[in-house]
Write a structure and sequence with these properties.
By secondary structure, the protein is an alpha+beta fold. It has 2 domains: about 140 residues, Creatine Amidinohydrolase, Chain A, domain 1 (3-Layer(aba) Sandwich); about 220 residues, Creatine Amidinohydrolase (Alpha-Beta Complex), CATH 3.90.230.10. The strands form 6 sheets. A 6-stranded mixed sheet has the order 4-3-2-1-5-6. It has a 4-stranded mixed sheet with strand order 8-9-12-20, sandwiched between helices. Strands 7-10-11 form a 3-stranded antiparallel sheet. Helix 4 packs across helix 5, helix 7 crosses helix 8 and helix 9 runs antiparallel to helix 10. It is elongated and about 70 Å long. The relative contact order is 0.11.
């Protein structure tokens, strides 16, 4: 069985079935990804061989290549019928059979529009004539946006592993190392502490590179006077941490220290603003105001944060213009930054949970400017 308990799986399946009915859809078709994992607790890989999970009424079915039959059959947290195919026979017959058996012709079929591939979509349309494939991203977002205790427990584990690994790594950082070398040390520390994987590629950025919000760790050598930025996170059973901290390598320029303190104050203002009943944009505005008031508004070039879950970037987006009301169970990042081109940048990122009474900061790594190396 997958990591999702049968009880959780049944409840999630029932919620999705009720959502399909409420939104006016007859069925759902999902390719491997976060939502399939959420429902089944099993990882299926998206590759050249199509795999699709179908839900129609009280029936569930999955098209899988023959080499996945044992994996799928042995890990069912709720029963679904398997439609398998070999490489020799191809997958067309499996699509024809499942579309016929589930009576999908002429039906409204909900998909994740942002993820569904053209291949699978066209095959469903071919073998379910007259069907309508409809992007139902909001429905699937609503399904997963409020985290359950079992999910939060995994995220807490991922955060603790990540924070412990960062502390271990900092003790080894020295001027003369490259960003890539430090990233490798952090990777090893996370693995040794029990990480199942990375939420995304580890980012370590030194000096002027730290002014690149989406920079990539490379061969830049760490020097005294640099800011050193880490953006990283471990996963545990697919659930992530997403943490950013920035450090001083020796004595840094006074303005770098100044922008660090501004970013820290902005981070804290955003966290203070987060609570049930406020909107996502309220958190962004509270965070951004601190940076704007300090005269660095043009150097804060991205949203304040993003939802965190099986997808490293998911709802709710913490950005001006998003009037979604925050509810208990939502998890997101608060990650303001100031980036001075050619000089350096600071970002401080925490993971927070909306509770019944306010907000819980899941990350606990200290935020006072720390000198290392």
């Amino acid at each position: 069985m997958g990591i999702v308990s049968s009880l959780d799986a049944r409840a999630r399946l029932e919620r999705l079935t009720a959502s399909l009915k409420a939104w006016g859809y007859d069925a759902a078709a999902l390719i491997p990804g976060a939502t399939v994992f959420y429902l089944t607790g099993v990882t299926y890989h998206l590759g050249k061989r199509p795999q699709v999970l179908f839900l129609a009424g009280n029936e569930a079915a999955m098209i899988v290549p023959s080499l996945e039959v044992e994996h799928a059959g042995a890990n069912q947290s709720f029963p679904f019928k398997l439609y398998s195919y070999t490489d020799a026979e191809g997958y067309l017959g499996a699509f024809e059979k499942v579309c016929s058996d589930l009576n999908l012709a002429g039906k409204k079929i909900a998909v994740e529009g942002i993820k569904m591939r053209v291949l699978e979509g066209q095959l469903i349309e071919k073998y379910a004539p007259g069907c309508s494939i409809i992007s139902a991203d909001q429905m699937f977002t609503d399904l997963r946006i409020l985290k359950q205790e079992s999910e939060l427990a995994l995220m807490r584990q991922a955060i603790q592993i990540s924070q412990g690994a960062l502390e271990e790594t900092l003790a080894e950082v020295r001027p003369g190392m490259t960003e890539r070398q430090v990233a490798a040390i952090l990777q090893g520390a996370m693995t040794n502490r029990g990480a199942h994987g990375n939420a995304f590629d580890i980012t370590v950025l030194a000096g002027a590179d730290s002014a690149l919000p989406h920079g990539t760790s490379g061969d830049t050598v760490i020097k005294p006077g640099d800011l050193l930025l880490f953006d990283y996170g471990a996963t545990v059973n697919q659930y992530p941490a997403d943490i950013t901290r920035t450090f001083a390598v020796g004595k840094v320029d006074p303005e770098m220290e100044k922008i660090y303190n501004v970013v820290k104050a902005a981070n804290e203002a955003g966290i203070k603003a987060a609570r049930p009943g406020v909107t996502a944009q309220d958190v962004d505005r509270a965070t951004r105001k601190v940076i704007v008031d300090a005269g660095y508004g043009e150097y804060f070039t991205h949203r304040t944060g993003h939802g965190l879950g099986l997808d490293i970037h998911e709802a709710p987006n913490i950005v001006d213009g998003n009037a979604v009301v925050l509810e208990p169970g939502m998890v997101f990042t608060v990650e303001p930054g100031i980036y001075l081109p050619g000089r350096g940048g600071v970002r401080i990122e925490d993971n927070v949970l909306i509770t019944e009474t306010g907000v819980e900061v899941l990350t606990s790594f200290p935020k006072t400017l720390r000198t290392i190396g």
